Fold this sequence. Notes:
By secondary structure, the protein is α+β, with helices and mostly antiparallel strands. The protein is built from 7 helices and 22 strands.
Amino acid sequence: MSWKRTIIAILVLVTAVFARTSIPFDPARGLVEIEVELDGHIRGVFGIDTGADQLYIDRAFAVKNGLSFAPETPTAEVVGVDGSSRGSAISLRSLTFGRELLVNQRAVAIDIAGLTGDKDATVPDGLIGYEVLKQFFVTVDYPAKTLELTQDLPRFIYGNRYHTVPFTQYRHLVIVMAQFDGQVEAPMILDYCASYTSLSKRLAERLTLTKDERGFNIAGEIRVGEKVVSRDVPVVVTDFSLYRRSTPQAEYEGILGASFLREHKITVDYRTQQIYIHK
Length: 279
């Protein structure tokens, strides 16, 4: 083989190893929402949801676009923090986002607004959860408003410009230890599809929360690992009793959402149960 062909072969190999999908996202609702295509022609906006176990499609969107509901499939209850919805199976020929094409996907149709407890809420057309995300290194760069997905080791692994934080996994949930105001530690769910950081009532009682001019509760400092810090974080105090019934063995005292994550670039690695915090 000539030296030119050798160089070309190396470049092809490197390109294959570092292949990735970079997708802009819209943070207007405080969520990581991207454009997708279903069955080769149906376009929608789906949220990247580390708090969801599988692929969900809003029922009204599914009906409007004539998606195929599986016949004679029993409905199951899907529980969120603030509400619940009955789910029905849907079969998709394909799901496309960025350069990724996934075929023969199973999905569940639900009333997504029902999970928020607000029937009039504006919501994404669907949610991309664990069963899809576990195939990738999932990187959300909040400052740059981009989502990156790669199935191979991402490029940054070969440098040293990141910190690692281990997480525990309960079913699909990513749970990390967080420190509040340098004193109180508590396990928290890391959720790309939560607008705010939510605290359980018992955690909120242990903290000194202030209020801003809008009346939001503010946590002075939240830290994950040694280096990941957000200050003056808007938080909401939430009753998790409904959600705990669907996650009886999980230990958590709240959810780290966009009000904490918005200053950071974070990669979730389901294979090694680590998150990478980029410097």
